C-alpha cells in the first residue's frame, strides 16, 4: 500500500548519517540518491524511507501528529534501533517498553525533529 515516506531535513549529511545507521540495522541501505534526496530500502521490497531538503527552498519543518513506524524483528532490535537513533543525533520520545498488550515500542526523533518509532507486535 505505501511505497515510501519522505521526511524533510535542513542538513542532508547529518540526516543521512542518522538514516544510514538506523536503516542499516533494519538490513537496508540507500537505494536512490540525488543531490537533494536520499531513499533507503530495497527496490521492489516493502515501503522505503526518503530524506530530502524541501524542493520549494523553504526550511523543512516537522508535522504535528506525523510519525513513521519502523517494524523491528523483535524486542532486542527495538532496543538497538532506539540506541542507534540516540547515538546518531536522535532524541528520546519514549524509551523501549511495552505499550499495551502485544505491542513493544520505542519512540525517538531524528536530528531534524521528525518523529519515528521502532515497534514489534506479538
UniProtKB/TrEMBL annotation:
<dbReference type="InterPro" id="IPR037523">
    <property type="entry name" value="VOC_core"/>
</dbReference>
<dbReference type="InterPro" id="IPR029068">
    <property type="entry name" value="Glyas_Bleomycin-R_OHBP_Dase"/>
</dbReference>
<dbReference type="InterPro" id="IPR004360">
    <property type="entry name" value="Glyas_Fos-R_dOase_dom"/>
</dbReference>
<feature type="domain" description="VOC">
    <location>
        <begin position="1"/>
        <end position="121"/>
    </location>
</feature>
<dbReference type="Pfam" id="PF00903">
    <property type="entry name" value="Glyoxalase"/>
</dbReference>
<protein>
    <submittedName>
        <fullName>VOC family protein</fullName>
    </submittedName>
</protein>
Amino acid at each position: 500500500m505505501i511505497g515510501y515516506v519522505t521526511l524533510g531535513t535542513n542538513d542532508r549529511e547529518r540526516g543521512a548519517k542518522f538514516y544510514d545507521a538506523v536503516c542499516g540495522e533494519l538490513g537496508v541501505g540507500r537505494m536512490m540518491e540525488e543531490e537533494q534526496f536520499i531513499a533507503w530500502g530495497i527496490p521492489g521490497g516493502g515501503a522505503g524511507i526518503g530524506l530530502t531538503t524541501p524542493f520549494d527552498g523553504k526550511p523543512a519543518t516537522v508535522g504535528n501528529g506525523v510519525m513513521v513506524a519502523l517494524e523491528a524483528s523483535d524486542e532486542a532490535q527495538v532496543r538497538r534501533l532506539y540506541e542507534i537513533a540516540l547515538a546518531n543525533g536522535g532524541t528520546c520520545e519514549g524509551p523501549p517498553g511495552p505499550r499495551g498488550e502485544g505491542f513493544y515500542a520505542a519512540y525517538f526523533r531524528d536530528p531534524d525533529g521528525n518523529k519515528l518509532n521502532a515497534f514489534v507486535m506479538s
